[in-house]
């Protein structure tokens, strides 16, 4: 850790208020509650849980999830998988197709050492390249199914059968099942609207599974789902495994999603960005040291969780700065040196802006954890 590190505050009473900022905070009590709530949900539904590490990018968080019963971790990139599997995390699934000679070689090398590694494919040429490279331990591959996100995945059950057969017949590959991740549904705010769409996705996956079974290629695993659809996916009996990730820390946009039918949310904010007031010259707003380089910009505005006057709102003021706009009629004002905490709009890209988490237990800094897979492609 270099200058500006907060490691000297570990274990000190009141250390939270003395952190160098901007700082990424992780509330350990809230994190652990979220992890246990999702684990309990999956125990009730009979689903396996393979949380998505693109949210936290942390070996420490992954270990907590595994300890609570998760069967592994999903990784959006090969680089994330290399970090987590290299740290001994079992059951890593790379959820995006791995293509290109260099990346294929990396995946095959990782498979030789990693316990329970899996990957996905949606193209016969990509499968052929993996089959040619996989000359050691057989590589487990899932066929990726497009269920409406229009990002990756095959478009028909017939194509899924052809690809599954190609995998099954390749000496260095194992057909491990299908993936159907409905990313386009996770942030549909209305529960009823989302439930209707989830039913259609489940019907599509059930159809693909049935066609595969009729072809003698019944998928051993059907994986998908997420935080937004976790309370709906299991109701159709198709997904044997849940890939939810954001539940662990939550963000502003997920806070808008009616995660359960009664509108309540079982998960709570566990991740915050702490910032310091660096200028208070104006009457209408103060300036903090958290801007475009401290918070994701692909969602709603961050919300103040602590320290700001009631009714205050945030806006970006450049790379390094943000504005705390005072609410009309509220005479309270911030002064230089005051501390505020913000709930990020989108957790995944916010985490990717930081080198470390500050793992907090109340007002005490318990540990500083590296964001191990930051920027890993």
Structural notes for this entry:
With 377 residues, the protein is an alpha/beta fold. The chain folds into 2 domains: 7-25 and 266-370, Beta Barrel (Lyase, Ornithine Decarboxylase, Chain A, domain 1), CATH 2.40.37.20; 28-253, TIM Barrel, CATH 3.20.20.10. The protein has helices at 28-45, 59-67, 78-86, 101-113, 124-133, 157-169, 191-214, 230-233, 252-255, 347-351; strands at 23-27, 48-49, 73-75, 92-94, 118-121, 139-144, 173-180, 222-224, 241-242, 271-279, 285-288, 303-306, 313-316, 322-325, 339-343, 356-361, 364-370. Strands 1, 10, 11, 12, 13, 14, 15, 16 and 17 form a 9-stranded mixed β-sheet that branches. An 8-stranded parallel β-sheet has the order 2-9-8-7-6-5-4-3. Helix 3 runs parallel beside helix 4 (101-113). The two termini are 23 Å apart. The relative contact order is 0.16.
Which key features would you list for this structure?
single chain; 377 residues; alpha/beta; Lyase, Ornithine Decarboxylase, Chain A, domain 1; TIM Barrel; 9-stranded mixed sheet; 8-stranded parallel sheet; 10 helices; 29% helix; 21% strand; globular
Topology diagram in text:
Elements: E1 23-27, H1 28-45, E2 48-49, H2 59-67, E3 73-75, H3 78-86, E4 92-94, H4 101-113, E5 118-121, H5 124-133, E6 139-144, H6 157-169, E7 173-180, H7 191-214, E8 222-224, H8 230-233, E9 241-242, H9 252-255, E10 271-279, E11 285-288, E12 303-306, E13 313-316, E14 322-325, E15 339-343, H10 347-351, E16 356-361, E17 364-370
Helix pairs in contact: 3-4, 6-7
């Amino acid at each position: 850790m270099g200058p500006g590190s907060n490691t000297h505050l570990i274990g000190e009473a009141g250390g939270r208020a003395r952190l160098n900022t901007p700082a990424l905070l992780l509330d350990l009590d809230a994190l652990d509650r979220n992890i246990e709530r999702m684990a309990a949900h999956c125990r009730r539904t009979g689903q396996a849980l393979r949380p998505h590490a693109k949210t936290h990018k942390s070996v420490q968080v992954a270990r907590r999830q595994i300890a609570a019963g998760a069967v592994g971790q999903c990784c959006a990139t090969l680089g994330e998988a290399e970090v987590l599997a290299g740290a001994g995390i079992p059951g890593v699934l790379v959820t995006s197709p791995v293509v290109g000679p260099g990346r294929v070689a990396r995946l095959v090398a990782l498979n030789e050492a990693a316990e329970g590694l899996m990957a996905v494919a949606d193209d016969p040429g990509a499968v052929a390249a993996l089959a040619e490279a996989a000359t050691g331990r057989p590589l487990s591959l899932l066929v990726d199914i497009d269920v409406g996100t229009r990002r990756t995945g095959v478009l028909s059950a017939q194509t899924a059968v052809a690809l599954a057969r190609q995998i099954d017949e390749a000496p260095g590959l194992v057909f491990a099942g299908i993936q159907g991740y409905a990313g386009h549904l996770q942030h549909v705010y209305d529960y009823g609207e989302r439930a209707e769409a989830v039913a259609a996705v489940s019907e599509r996956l059930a159809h693909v599974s049935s066609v595969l079974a009729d072809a003698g290629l019944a998928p051993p695993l059907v994986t998908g789902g997420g935080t937004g659809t976790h309370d709906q996916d299991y109701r159709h009996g198709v997904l044997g495994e849940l890939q939810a990730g954001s539940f662990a820390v939550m963000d502003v946009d997920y806070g808008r999603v009616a995660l359960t039918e009664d509108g309540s949310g079982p998960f709570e904010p566990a991740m915050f960005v702490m910032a310091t007031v660096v200028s208070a010259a104006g009457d209408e707003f103060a300036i903090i040291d958290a801007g475009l380089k401290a918070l994701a910009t692909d969602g709603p505005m961050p919300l103040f969780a602590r320290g700001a006057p009631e009714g205050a709102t945030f806006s970006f003021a450049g790379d390094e700065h943000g504005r705390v706009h005072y609410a009309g009629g509220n005479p309270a004002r911030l002064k230089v040196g005051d501390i505020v905490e913000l709930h990020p709009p989108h957790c995944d890209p916010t985490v990717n802006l930081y080198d470390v988490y500050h793992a907090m237990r109340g007002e005490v800094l318990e540990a500083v954890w590296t964001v191990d897979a930051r920027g890993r492609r």
